């Protein structure tokens, strides 16, 4: 099985020993993206702004993979606080159109770097 690393200077570097994305065949599996601004290495305040940045990071990686949000078939949204679901969902809805990708969303005990939102996607090319 051939694997190709997907990365972009417009998305933050991995915080550990993993790739931002891996392409195999016609699928791309992207690691969860926190709302880290790649230019500053910092996260904005609040779940809404972090969701916007997370999706911007995903968009940069999609571009690097030759894809768009229309190619996304599955997403997982991790929230530090499920009370942020509705607000994050509004941001999320600005990037996806019908037919929407399958999605899971849930609260977790904690996210890396004190993040409030992390989003991962699976892409079909």
Automatic annotation (TrEMBL):
Q: What Pfam families does its record include?
A: Ribonuc_L-PSP
Question: Which InterPro entries would you find in this protein's record?
Answer: RidA, RidA_CS, RutC-like_sf, YjgF/YER057c/UK114
According to its record, what are the GO cellular component terms? Answer: cytosol
Gene Ontology MF terms in the entry: deaminase activity
The record's annotation in NCBIfam families points to:
Rid family detoxifying hydrolase
PANTHER family (alphabetical):
2-IMINOBUTANOATE/2-IMINOPROPANOATE DEAMINASE RIDA, 2-IMINOBUTANOATE_2-IMINOPROPANOATE DEAMINASE
**Family, as annotated:** Belongs to the RutC family.
Please report the name of this protein according to its UniProt entry: RidA family protein
What organism, scientifically named, is this protein from? Collinsella ihumii
